[in-house]
Amino acid sequence: MKNLILIAMITFLGFSAQAQTKKNKNLKYTTEVNGNCEQCKKRIEKAAYGVPGVKTASWDVSSHQLAVILNEEKSSPKDLNLAIAKAGHDTKEVKATDADYENLHSCCKYEREK
Amino acid sequence: MQKNIMLFVVFLLSVSVFSQEDLEEVKITKKQKGIKKSYTLTSNTSLITSKELLKAACCNLAESFETNPSIDVNFSDALTGTKQIKMLGLTSPYLMITEENIPSVRGASQAYGLSFTPGTWIESVQITKGAGSVINGYESISGQINTELLKPLSDIPFFLNAYGSTDSRFELNTHFNKKLSDKWATSLFVHGNARVAKNDMNNDGFLDNPLGKQINVLNRYQYYDPESGLVSFINFRYMNDKKQTGEVDFDKDRDRGTTNHWGSEINTERFDVSTKIGYVFKDMPYQSIGFQNAFNTHRQDSYFGLNLYDIKQNSFYSNLIFNSIINNTMHKFTTGLNFSYDQYQEFVNANDYSRIDNSVGAFFEYTYDNTDNFSIILGGRVDNHNRLGFFATPRLHVRYNPWKNGVIRFSAGRGKRSANIFAENQQLFASSRTFSILDNSGKIYGLNPEIAWNYGISFSQKFKIFNKNAEAGFDIYRTDFQNQAVVDLMQSPQDVLFYNLKGSSFANSLQVEFNYELIHNLNLRTAYKYYDIQTDYLRGTFQRPLQAKHRFLGNLEYETNVSDNKQWKFDYTFNWSGKQQLPYTASNPAEDQFPDFSPSYVVMNAQVTRVFSPVFEVYVGGENIGNYKQQKAILGANDPFGPNFDASVAYAPIFGQMYYAGLRFKIK
């Protein structure tokens, strides 16, 4: 009996583990992106929308949180972070290159965390 | 974050169910303003909040536009006192009027429908100029007015409003609200109004305002479950309205159907049921589905002297809407199906015009928004209607922000409708005019459907003068009729002719607006409007009767800062109306003639509100405080059953100055 339960549990657990590795078509992903103004917001969101599979993107000026819904079959969160950094904005995961940062409009030059 | 997602879900949900309500949701953090003009919406839409509605004396939707530049409030006739509205110079039949996005004022309710929604029930009104969205239908030509009622889940437990005025009108509004659970709430609104005393300020022997009684009850339920994404509304409504007008000495029990005295009664009874259900897909806040159903029965029994007019309309309306995205939320679409069924029993004197109308349609609307400075909405629908045939309705809206705080908009669209010529022109029954329909080959009273194209462009800019907020803008619209059910009052004062347009008919309008915060808390709103509305009648080309070519509106509002929960609010509105073309009466004897054009005149309204606490406030005000009165309101008033009688020509207030007072009591 005990074994049966164990087997059932393992099977169940296995299922759920498998479910998690399966790519989510509507992954809710939130990350911190540095920036400071409405113009940054437009740039960040534009960069996010440029990533294949990003369905919605919204960056909050005050909290610096970027919330997206992402189709993982097309891109990974890593791709998203790279794209944002490419636009000149540091994310929690990926820092922008100095050159990309310098390309920002003067009012968008947020204080970088070293 | 959780909260943001929630907000987003709520936002999308409201988009799906109400489809045009986004403005309100977006701007929620801003200081409450009376009229909000969006700089990010694609269509030229302004939002009237409940704050603005409080500026009007009272009392119902028809009367709530007096301070709004986009809408002109006219006086329908010397008898019923019902205020008619116009947008871009066209009367309300050319507007799509919806209540929570369900078509409300249409068909039989066209003449008085706006006065059947009490002002206190209204949460907000959205006014879109020009071609509307295809989602609600094909009928809108010059604009769209959508009313949102108070929502049970956010309503206060108890509200009381009492009102009385010197024209002997009294109103009582009571709202009750109860949260049944954390997901269900219900509101009960009870409205009653009455005008009990006879007034004849211009001594023509006729009442200036109808005697009236109305009882109006709405019970609504709201369900909202943020976890499952399910939202629903269920509404039940009953309305009974009785009006009596005509000669002061008219006694309805004694004189009805006789020529002792001229009198009229208009009795309306209406019952509405509507339901709405919306679902937001799990993990996909951008995708939702909504289903609306509305049933109503509307019955009007009326007579105007010896003219009898009865109409009963049973209607069913159903709308299924699906919202989603293509790749991402920069590309959104809305698609769905409509169905409508209208059964009319209509009797004009001895003639039976009963009929059944039905239509089924499909729509698709695509929205591109670059999330920055440009958006476009491309909409289309196809409908199959038993009288209008099979037809397509395209609509286009474009928005571009060329620079900061500036917005340019363009819209174009086609509208098609069947004119309910009697219901829409029933004030003409209050005359000795003979009704004649000159065409007989069409499917709607012998007439063809009305078809019009509307184009418009607008620009607005916000800026600072001496560090104070200012806003300036203009819009230009043109409506071109391909066909129109022409209502001809230019042929003879004894006739009204209805026929298909032969030649051209158009409405051009220009509005220039300037708003400025003069000093802190003192706001000025001004608008100049120019209308050129011409129709080819049998006797020649004329401006549409009872339409001023030039109008000017000024509004001043001042509020003290709230201190100790107390506040003063002041409001003053100035309305100048230029000369108006009047119906042709030159063939009448001299004493029963109107001039070709009316004089210009000014109407001023003012109001003071004292807020004693969040619970209690009192307001007093005056309408038409300059006491302007139309000199001759009724032609042939001495002989109301004679050939020259006409009570349908109202170009100015009949009743002079009017003062009112009221109170509001709220339990939060």
Mean residue pLDDT of chain B: 90
Main beta sheet of chain A? 3 strands, antiparallel
Q: What's the SSE pattern of chain A?
A: HEHEEHH
Based on the coordinates given, report the CATH architecture of chain B. Beta Barrel
Largest sheet composition of chain B: 22 strands, antiparallel, barrel
Instruction: Give the amount of beta strand of chain B, in percent.
Output: over 45%
* Number of E strands of chain A: 3
Tell me the Rg of chain B in angstroms.
Answer: 24 Å
* Total domains of chain B: 1
How much helicity do the residues of chain B have? Answer: under 10%
Helical residues, percent of chain A = 40-55%
Helix/strand-derived class of chain B?
mainly beta
Description:
- The complex is a heterodimer of chains A (114) and B (668).
- The radius of gyration of chain A is 19 Å and the shape is elongated.
- Chain A has 114 residues and is of the alpha+beta class.
- Helices cover 41% and strands 16% of the residues of chain A.
- Chain A contains four helices and three strands.
- In chain A, strands 1-3-2 form a three-stranded antiparallel β-sheet, covered by helices on one side.
- In chain A, strand 2 (54-59) and strand 3 form a beta hairpin.
- The longest helix of chain A is centred in the first third of the chain and has 20 residues, at 2-21.
- By secondary structure, chain B is mainly beta.
- Chain B has one domain (2-667): Maltoporin, Chain A.
- Chain B is 5% helix and 55% strand.
- Chain B has a 22-stranded antiparallel β-barrel. A six-stranded mixed β-sheet of chain B has the order 1-2-8-9-6-7.
- The two termini of chain B are 29 Å apart.
- Classes of the chains: A alpha+beta (114), B mainly beta (668).
- Chains A and B meet through helix 2, strand 2 and strand 3 of A and helix 1 and strand 18 of B.
